Amino acid sequence: MRARRAGIVAAALMLLTACTGGARDHSADGRITLRFQSLAWQQESVEAHKELVAEWNAAHPDVRVEYVQGSWDSVHDQLLTSFEGGEAPDIIHDASDDLADFAYGGYLADLTGLLPERLKADIPRRSWETVTFGDGIYGVPFLQEPRVIIANSAWLRDSGVRIPTPEEPWTWAEFREVTKELSAEGKYGVAWPLKEPVSATLNLSLSAGGQLFHRGADGKVTVRFEAGDEVVPRTVHHQVNSDGSAPGSTLGSGGSDTLPGFFGGKYAMVPLGFSYRQQIVQQAPKGFDWQVLPAPAGAAGLAQGVSPQTLSIAEDSPYKKEAAAFLDFLLRPQNMVRLALGDWMLPTGTQALKDPALRTARYGWATGTTLATHLRPAPAQSVRGYPEWKDKVATPALQEYYSGAIGLDELRRRLEEDGNLVLARYQR
Questions:
Q1: Could you tell me if 322 and 118 are in contact, meaning their C-beta atoms sit under 8 angstroms apart?
Q2: How many CB atoms lie within 10 A of CB 348?
Q3: What secondary structure does DSSP assign to 54-80, as a single string?
Q4: What is the pLDDT of residues 187-199, one digit of tens each?
Q5: What is the C-alpha end-to-end distance of the chain, expressed in Å?
Q6: What's the Cα-to-Cα distance from 47 to each of 51, 53, 397, rounded to whole Å?
Q7: What is this structure's pTM?
């Protein structure tokens, strides 16, 4: 494994050197040049990012921002390689659940004294908690999305089931009853796309009082799979293996993979991230009637874990103040709205969330903005070693449980016993 990783790092370093021309040189033409690596990938989002970079450059001739396209598929390893090779971008787009190891490893700048008070005050404390590690702030959370239920409106209307709202959501027990009622021969009340099951399970479990990760007085984290953590896994397991209200065939699928079946009338509902609405608008057959529903609520109401998209500054950037000024510009309320609309997500900023464009009933925007106040830091947010725990322990264990290959007791044992062995290596 070490040899393989060394090979990957070496290859990536060669690629980075080829792309950047070796050691960073930000002022060869007398101007400061900041490299901004963006992970925007949808066309509208890429255009919004590039337009804002162009607007900054037009107004700041002495501090030029160079747009660099990154990819969500490889960002963690790519960033690790660039940090170790001294080639990290000045401004880094990532997600908050990927920052812990980089922050504790000294790769990211503490933004506490760099950010303007306007920006600090505009973003709620609960969002800042997602990027706070120890006593420092290592990113700016700027875009977020709740998990929602995308539903076939005609199917639900014809069935006569109660339609939930953020004010009166389904309980998890009611959700299970509804999916059974909606199911028939060859048709399912819900399809769960759980190719990446961990974040969906943990984040939705907050509504039922799930926590999973528990930090002791010594600061060390242990995994405990308790009653609140069981609600969501039990629901999915029973829908697939007992009720017959969810197909097992979609458990290994991504969200996009379920859309053809949804449009074709095979599934009445699909739990998805809020941003999937863009694909639905683009791909749905003409006349297809759909709507956005809140995820079920449990003992903790509509609470839901979220890992916002973030913007950080590299610790070894020589132009931290200039980079912070660009972040301030990029995340002005009107610009945050543009970024949110481009990504079909929600801004974290309270001023941006008030924009009428984000509060329209069309495409479920209003439902999303209502849910925004219920979003909380994802359970794994500050857990060191979470990526390894997720990949090596939690993902295979949940996949096997959801498919019916193992029972709840074995799922608990693997998450706790095997998981704590992994986390212990990062907490010595």
A1: no
A2: 28
A3: HHHHHH-TTEEEEEEE--TTTHHHHHH
A4: 999 999 999 999 9
A5: 22
A6: 6, 10, 39
A7: 0.88
